[in-house]
Design brief:
The complex is a heterodimer of chains A (328) and B (370). Chain A is built from 12 helices and 14 strands. Chain A is an alpha/beta fold. Chain A folds into 2 domains: 180 residues, Thiamin diphosphate (ThDP)-binding fold, Pyr/PP domains (Rossmann fold, 3-Layer(aba) Sandwich); 127 residues, 3-Layer(aba) Sandwich (Rossmann fold). In chain A, the strands form 3 sheets. In chain A, strands 3-2-4-5-7-6-12 form a 7-stranded mixed β-sheet, sandwiched between helices. The chains are: A alpha/beta (328), B alpha/beta (370). Thiamine diphosphate sits at the interface of chains B and A.
Chain lengths: 328, 370
């Protein structure tokens, strides 16, 4: 493992700069990405390094600049679009959902769309209903796109580099809550292949499956439950599309229990998809049905106490695990 | 010919004595001064509370722009709808929201105007015809068209009369770049809907100056003209001027049932939000605008016109400080929302985990006092 420790946000930047040095077709555009160094300082210094032709400040015109980037991708460029927040992608819903993921199919294979769309996703900053979207539920529904959601700094770099090299559109979901997190990140080339989940904590009694920031909630819950003698295996899915169901199934066959933790709403979500697939593959292995912990099925509230209760927090996860194991 | 990225020429007003440039009564002038002082003090205390972590999330301060909300809202009737973006405390207060509900909302308490569910960016006040507080840039612009549509529909289709209302829809200069705004203007023009799009042109959207983000920034009303809206350029740092000019705009929009677009030149004295170091603009520029402080301008003009003296001003300011202090105490004493509030207000009807809806205190209090 690399000895160097950097922040999650710096790991993201390293992936972008590394790929921009390697491939002149790669460029970055979005609100405040250049002169302001990015609203969350992910692109700090990139304007200086690459100049205004490749690090482009846009107006608050998400539909316009996302569509523009998709057009550019049709002609072979490889744009990275930063949405300050995925919450703002909703005003660009048509280009990112109706154009990017369907272009290859609609053109019968003539025009692909090698674009990366990235930005902050998820609740937790008391930003209220308009600014706290977890888009993984809504957008993972769409075939033709890939969805990556790193939970650790080394994955932030390795997965973003892979996303930029990918020939298909990648929706890359970052949590603002994790940007200051520090970790070992390899210098130089580092690619994490899509569709490969990892076991973050081995265990024997139950499998916890999660994506992105809630992986940390799972690790917290596992720590608590260990004190009660319950051993949790925690799986970080890393990409939602493609979904590495094999790693999950392997683990559930061992533990005979499964709790899926997903910060999007429960109805038609990655959580419900994982549960359905586990039920299909592990029907005879399960001691209980798959349990799910999601954000509460309500718009995200502002008040601190309500928002805490809204999130799939460690307490709610531990409750679900106990219930899955028939522990009162 | 100027280029599409030239800075806008300045629009200025004032100079002459108050009596010569306004029909406003001394009582009205006092009220505007009071409102601006209230907003200023409210925002100063809001910044402190944010630093003390009593307020969370994103918080956008209105200091410097007080004359816009106060002057525009004074120029319309109380029954005329008002809607704005996320920099909304000033509009809420100018519309008549008691500061205690506004502060409690930011404290995330049950006494907040939205029971603590909305936060700083999402203020709502039904009794005062204030329709939010909208966090997504430009989101309020089609809503503004819709509010004006509904008022006209009530006046004409339901009541069988003629349109009697006008809607104020505030937006930042950054919202000029949202596609939805053009659709909102086109619809308003097409259907003769009396909505006034008031662009609070403070020259910046976050760290992007208007010249860097908006084509035709030297003459943004051209964007409205493209849809057939009459455009007006107004100095937004002088509340008397804002009122006089906006009164004309509103009277025309109401009488002719037509939309309009206003470029109100103003400046936010603080950062974009609480976490903005303001490296994109110079201290010189900030000082230039600060010398045109809308509160000082009105105070000086009123002193010159013999409408207030130093002591009177101090007393008025002190009253606002007391009002805001009381609002903070009230907010602090208001309880956190009960966890069961997570599942209220999702649907009007009760079903499953959803427990229906109920009026917040801001509404029940208003009903009681009626
Ligand atoms: C659709 C959308 N994109 C981006 C943002 C993030 N954002 C919030 S405020 C803002 C700047 C808006 O500037 P302006 O409209 O001029 O209003 P001001 O802040 O000056 O009052 C941005 C980019 C958002 N809230 N909504
Ligand atoms: Mg602005």
């Amino acid at each position: 493992m690399s000895e160097r420790i950097i922040e999650f946000r710096d790991a993201l930047r390293e992936a972008m700069t590394q790929e921009m040095h390697r491939d002149p077709r790669v460029f970055l555009l979005g609100e405040e990405v250049a002169q302001y160094d990015g609203a969350y300082k992910v692109s700090r210094g990139m304007l200086e390094e690459f100049g205004p032709r490749r690090v482009i400040d846009t107006p608050i015109s998400e539909s316009g600049f996302a569509g523009m980037a998709i057009g550019a991708a049709m002609l072979g460029l490889r744009p990275i679009v930063e949405f300050m927040s995925w919450s703002f992608s909703l005003v660009a819903a048509d280009p990112i959902l109706n154009n990017a993921p369907k272009m290859l199919y609609m053109s019968g294979g003539q025009f692909g769309c090698p674009i990366v769309i990235r930005g902050n996703d998820g609740a937790g900053g008391q930003l209220g209903s308009t600014h706290s979207w977890c888009v993984e539920g809504m957008f993972s529904n769409v075939p033709g796109l890939k969805m990556a959601i790193p939970a650790f700094p080394d994955d932030a770099k390795g997965m973003l580099a892979t996303a930029i090299r990918d020939d298909d559109p990648v929706f890359f979901l970052e949590s603002e809550r994790l940007l200051a997190m520090k970790g070992h990140v390899p210098e130089g080339d580092h690619y994490v292949p899509f569709g490969q989940a990892v076991v973050r904590r081995p265990g024997t009694d139950v499998t916890l499956v999660s994506f992105g920031r809630p992986v940390h909630f799972c690790l917290d819950a596992a720590e608590e439950l260990a004190k009660e003698g319950i051993s949790c295996e925690v799986i970080d899915g890393r990409t939602i599309r493609p979904l590495d169901i094999d790693t999950i199934v392997q683990s559930v066959r061992k533990t005979n229990g499964c709790v899926v933790v997903d910060q999007s709403w429960s109805f038609g979500s990655p959580g419900s998809e994982v549960a359905a697939q586990v039920h299909a593959h592990c029907f005879d292995d399960l001691d209980n049905h798959v349990m799910r912990v999601h954000s509460a099925d309500v718009p995200s509230p502002y008040a601190a106490n309500l928002e805490q209760e809204f999130l799939p927090n460690a307490r709610r996860i531990a409750e679900a695990v106990r219930s899955a194991l028939y522990v009162a | 010919m100027s280029s599409v990225t030239d800075p806008a020429p300045p629009v200025t007003s004032g100079g002459q004595p108050l009596a010569e440039r306004t029909s406003a009564t001394p009582k009205q002038l006092h009220e505007w001064l009071r409102q601006m002082l209230l907003i200023r003090e409210f925002e100063v205390r809001t910044m402190q509370a944010y630093q003390d972590k009593k307020i969370g999330g994103f918080c956008h301060i209105y200091i410097g722009q007080e004359a816009v909300a106060v002057g525009c809202i004074a120029a319309v009737q109380h029954a005329d709808p008002v809607v704005t973006a996320y920099r909304d405390h000033g509009h809420a207060l100018a519309r008549g929201m008691d500061p205690k509900y506004c502060m409690a909302e930011m404290f995330g308490r049950i006494g907040g105007c939205a029971k603590g569910k909305g936060g700083s960016m999402h203020m709502f006040d039904k009794p005062n015809n204030f329709f939010g507080g909208h966090g997504i840039v430009g989101a309020q612009t089609p809503l503004g068209t819709g509010l004006a549509f509904a008022k006209k529909y009530q006046d004409e289709v339901i009541d069988g009369g003629v349109n009697k209302h006008v809607t104020l829809c505030f937006l930042g200069d950054g919202a000029l770049n949202q596609g939805g705004f053009y659709e909102a203007m086109n619809l308003a023009s097409l259907f003769d809907i009396p909505v006034i799009f008031v662009v609070e042109n403070n020259g910046y959207s976050m760290g992007t100056s208007i010249e860097r983000g908006t084509s035709m920034s030297h003459r943004i009303i051209a964007k409205g003209e493209g849809c057939g809206l009459t455009g007006y350029e107004i100095d937004g740092m002088d509340v008397v001027n804002v009122y006089e000019e906006m009164k004309k705009v509103a009277d025309i929009a109401r009488a002719e049932s037509r939309p309009a677009m206003v470029d109100l030149r103003t400046y936010r004295f603080k950062g974009h939000s609480m976490s903005d170091p303001r490296k994109y603009r110079t201290r010189d520029e900030e000082q230039h605008w600060e010398t045109g402080d809308p509160i000082t301008r009105l105070r000086d003009a009123m002193i010159e016109g013999g409408l207030i003296d130093e002591d009177g001003f101090k007393a008025l300011n002190k009253d606002q400080k007391i009002a805001v202090r009381e609002a903070i105490t009230w907010a602090e004493n208001s309880p956190e929302p009960d966890p069961s509030e997570l599942h209220t207000d999702v649907y009007v009807e009760k079903f499953g985990p959803y427990t229906g809806t109920s009026q917040p205190q801001i509404v029940t209090d208003a009903e009681e006092s009626r």
